[in-house]
Amino acid sequence: MKFGVVLFPGSNCDKDAEYAVNFLGQSCEMLWHKEKNFKGIDCIILPGGFSYGDYLRAGAIARFAPIMERVVEFAQKGGLVMGICNGFQILTEVGLLPGVLIRNKNLRFVCDIVPIRVENTEVPYTYNLKKGDILKLPIAHGEGNYYIDNKGLEELKKNNQIVFSYLDNPNGSVENIAGIVNIKGNVLGMMPHPERGVEKVLGSEDGMKILKSVINWWGEKNGKL
Amino acid sequence: MANSREESYKLAGLTEEEYQKILADLKREPNPLELSMYGVLWSEHCSYKHTKKLLKYFPTEGEKVLQGPGENAGVLDGGDDIGIVFKIESHNHPSAVEPYQGAATGVGGIVRDIFSMGARPVALLNSLRFGSLNKQRNRYLLTGVVKGIGDYGNCLGIPDVGGEVYFHSCYDENPLVNAMCLGLVSVDKIKKGIAQGIGNVVMLVGAATGRDGIKGASFASANLEEDNENKRPSVQVGDPFMEKLLLEACMELVDNPYVVGVQDLGAAGLTSSACEMAARGKSGLELNLDKVHVREENMSAMEIMLSESQERMLYVVKPQGVEEVKKVFAKWDLQASEIGKVTDSGKIEIYYKGKLEGSIPTESIVDGVPLRDPLRKKPAYIEEKAKDIPIKEKVNYNDVLKTLIADENICSRKWIYSQYDYMVGNNTILRPGDTVGAVRIQGTTKAIGMTVDCNPLYPYLEPYHGGMMVVLESYRNLVAGGFKPLGITNCLNYPNPEDPENYYVLEQSIKGIAKACQELNTPVTGGNVSLYNQGVNTKIYPTPVIGMVGLIEDYHRCVTTAFKGEGELVYLVGE
Amino acid sequence: MKYNVEVIVSFKKGVLDPQSAAVSGAIASLGYDNIVNLTISKKFNFQISGSTRDIVEEQVDNLCRKLLANPVIENYHYSIWEEK
Amino acid sequence: MKYNVEVIVSFKKGVLDPQSAAVSGAIASLGYDNIVNLTISKKFNFQISGSTRDIVEEQVDNLCRKLLANPVIENYHYSIWEEK
Ligand SMILES: Nc1ncnc2c1ncn2[C@@H]1O[C@H](COP(=O)(O)OP(=O)(O)O)[C@@H](O)[C@H]1O
């Protein structure tokens, strides 16, 4: 399976994503934000970091990067797109995911390893997981406070779009939301960092379960297992 | 006339003796631009005039030292062709004025020192001192400093793997903010801050130059109360996003064969970086200030030369490489201007608007400052305080324990380090909360352990042995984590050196540090000196912060602090 | 023609702005118990040139919707006046 | 008496404002080459009660200096008007 990691000016988890993908034996291509096209990619990762310094609003400027037009098209055709941390913020700004991520409730950046619960196993990203599974994953963000209005929240619930929730809300997110998908389930946005949780010596290996889910789901679908 | 001359060299921060030396070196009177350039480069911060002789006590050589003091950062040999580049720096005074920006730009500065050597920064640490937290102002300083360090380092994506913080009333007027950065480089790709090769091109890259932090020269003693917008030196504001772009662009140029030398612009801006690079290459430089990309209109030559705008680097490039270098910076949306060339004149010659505005012998401005040798006097308090403190016999140990763990100097530091991203990079093996911080070297089983320490009470009570003890603490921390200590960097934070008692303490503690480094075989590869940390009512304790670096061959064998399981035995080792 | 533009972007009613909440808390803890209903907005000022006011207004509105404000949580309004 | 207050906090002239620079860059890359001199400021609105306007004004000024603005790098100005 081939992953593509988009490199925006200010991205800083691009290498971590590449490392995790390679660690799991898959290939990875770095995609420069000024490119207008890409080919042969099975899953796009929008990595963490501070694209364009997170000035104005996190993700607000990155969504206009030339490559984003193709990412949106790719997603609309059902392609797998994972936005992690800053990537999640970009996905909401560009409108592929509903809601928005605002400043953490206490206005402080928070770095920690926290437990999250799997709420939805109908999507590629949780293919190997069970509902209620607890994953311990690194978080590191200043604007991870997920907000959506009541109507939007009802929609999310109705369509089973909430994929991960915090056990102990670190940032003030509505309904403890840590990660959501679009209605079709092919676009995932999450604040925790699965790409940092791939080895025990780093403090967590639960991130692997998410990345392996994607790989297994894809392999099965394409008869490549 | 004589009077106004005295006024002008004093305004530039120079003494009579120093002014006479300038006259002798130039064989004429300096013009205002030249005088202010001398003023900043001959300041304590840039010239080390009070400490140069003392720093000679430090052992700076060893089998593992690839680069000792004198470059932008020191380098240790990590084996397998890996250079470990590291340095610590203070940003005390700026942080006292504006804690957020002061701390942020402190991080920015030390990170540039590391990547100017061609190394990719992989870890940050910080050492902080504030007055007691029961004062509102100190809480404000702590909050701002921690946020400043966090926001800058987090944005760059460099994990902050450790640090330390102490609170004591001696820091009420002078908080300390020391930041350390460590990076990795292939040994054959180490870059130096050198300008040589006649005709090579000098390029200024990164942020545009504005009137930031112009403090030297005539502004230094302008009355700050006076609300004159244009005269006020403006605080430097950091732009971590710009720095991230600069970092990535510089990393792309590490392999470029046309790059001759690189240095970041720090204190005293273009003046110090240009002069120092030229001095290392025993060269002259011709600078054309019209080519500098500026942020503001109508800047004078002096303002351009003294600006401390952040996120800038100076490159010396062979002419045939200029286009390629520009291309790399353009890819990262950065400006790169050709502002001059290397000459054999032995002078820094500054042209602006078609006129020669200044011409200074390189050697004179970089190495010509008359060194000071102040008086020493052993402070009386030392004998007094060395007496035994009686220990109360009847105490309730439960209460004592509770008091201790609630003490601001002992309680958990999680409030601080949870604001720093300590995991980015996927290499953090030991993180804040452990004895030392550690990052692994990707592609090997090795990890580098690092720690910053200084309990200022020791050097305060007994400067010589106290200095030794500070080094020993770092050493013990590294050994406890499983690392073999290799070398140190240090940040000497002291009060006014012109006071004989302060100077005595400074000298003695440096000797103590030097002795410990000698005995432990952990040479000094660089550091930073911050004097004059003294206010109206308080002066800081001697605070020589030690940043020590060690290596472990197999990071799976690192030892963490936590008790691992029930029933395991606990030993107390030592005397 | 040259125009001056001022755009104000503020949180929609009902959206809790953590920054306003924190500043309100800080104000209260400084002892000002007589201050209420604090809101924080962003103010943008810039100059734009264009042949007619209508063209300029359309561009400004576009810019607000696309970049300066996030319509999920923010409202915007602007004023445009000719440069003298 | 109840008063409405509006405070504008902006960077001092000459102080680097990276946010404005980044947003200006984004605006240009969106194709608006007719927009220049962008600045971004913060706007605070709140209500304050007090017996006289002078007392209120002093409190507002204090608050600006102590909390809302950072006088080292920012300027502030405010307007106060009576609530009808
Ligand atoms: N300013 C800081 N930044 C990052 N980490 C810090 C800071 N201060 C303390 N820490 C971390 O908190 C832990 C405890 O600090 P400290 O009490 O100084 O440790 P010790 O006394 O055991 O050396 C250490 O792991 C240290 O790295």
TrEMBL record, chain A:
Keyword Cytoplasm in annotation: yes
Signal peptide: none
Any GO CC annotation of this UniProt entry: cytoplasm
GO MF terms, alphabetically ordered: ATP binding; glutaminase activity; phosphoribosylformylglycinamidine synthase activity
Domain of life from the UniProt record: Bacteria
Transmembrane segments: none
Keywords: ATP-binding, Cytoplasm, Glutamine amidotransferase, Hydrolase, Ligase, Nucleotide-binding, Purine biosynthesis
Entry-linked Gene3D superfamilies: 3.40.50.880
Family matches, as CDD domains: GATase1_FGAR_AT (cd01740)
EC assignment: 6.3.5.3, 3.5.1.2
GO biological process: 'de novo' IMP biosynthetic process
Pathways per UniProt: Purine metabolism; IMP biosynthesis via de novo pathway; 5-amino-1-(5-phospho-D-ribosyl)imidazole from N(2)-formyl-N(1)-(5-phospho-D-ribosyl)glycinamide: step 1/2
Protein localization: Cytoplasm
Residues the record marks as active site: 85 (nucleophile), 193, 195
InterPro entries named among the record's database cross-references: Class_I_gatase-like, PRibForGlyAmidine_synth_PurQ
Reaction equation(s) it catalyzes: N(2)-formyl-N(1)-(5-phospho-beta-D-ribosyl)glycinamide + L-glutamine + ATP + H2O = 2-formamido-N(1)-(5-O-phospho-beta-D-ribosyl)acetamidine + L-glutamate + ADP + phosphate + H(+); L-glutamine + H2O = L-glutamate + NH4(+)
Function field: Part of the phosphoribosylformylglycinamidine synthase complex involved in the purines biosynthetic pathway. Catalyzes the ATP-dependent conversion of formylglycinamide ribonucleotide (FGAR) and glutamine to yield formylglycinamidine ribonucleotide (FGAM) and glutamate. The FGAM synthase complex is composed of three subunits. PurQ produces an ammonia molecule by converting glutamine to glutamate. PurL transfers the ammonia molecule to FGAR to form FGAM in an ATP-dependent manner.
Quaternary structure note: Part of the FGAM synthase complex composed of 1 PurL, 1 PurQ and 2 PurS subunits.
The protein's name: Phosphoribosylformylglycinamidine synthase subunit PurQ
Provenance organism: Anaerobranca californiensis DSM 14826
Automatic annotation (TrEMBL), chains C, D:
Catalyzed reactions: N(2)-formyl-N(1)-(5-phospho-beta-D-ribosyl)glycinamide + L-glutamine + ATP + H2O = 2-formamido-N(1)-(5-O-phospho-beta-D-ribosyl)acetamidine + L-glutamate + ADP + phosphate + H(+)
The keyword Nucleotide-binding belongs to this UniProt entry's keyword annotation: yes
Residue ranges of coiled coil: none
Recorded GO MF terms: ATP binding; phosphoribosylformylglycinamidine synthase activity
InterPro entries linked: PurS (IPR003850), PurS-like_sf (IPR036604)
Swiss-Prot/TrEMBL keywords: ATP-binding, Cytoplasm, Ligase, Nucleotide-binding, Purine biosynthesis
EC annotation from Swiss-Prot or TrEMBL: 6.3.5.3
Function, as annotated: Part of the phosphoribosylformylglycinamidine synthase complex involved in the purines biosynthetic pathway. Catalyzes the ATP-dependent conversion of formylglycinamide ribonucleotide (FGAR) and glutamine to yield formylglycinamidine ribonucleotide (FGAM) and glutamate. The FGAM synthase complex is composed of three subunits. PurQ produces an ammonia molecule by converting glutamine to glutamate. PurL transfers the ammonia molecule to FGAR to form FGAM in an ATP-dependent manner.
Assembly and binders: Part of the FGAM synthase complex composed of 1 PurL, 1 PurQ and 2 PurS subunits.
Annotated HAMAP family: PurS
Homology family: Belongs to the PurS family.
PANTHER family in alphabetical order: PHOSPHORIBOSYLFORMYLGLYCINAMIDINE SYNTHASE SUBUNIT PURS
Name the UniProt record assigns to this protein: Phosphoribosylformylglycinamidine synthase subunit PurS
Native species: Anaerobranca californiensis DSM 14826
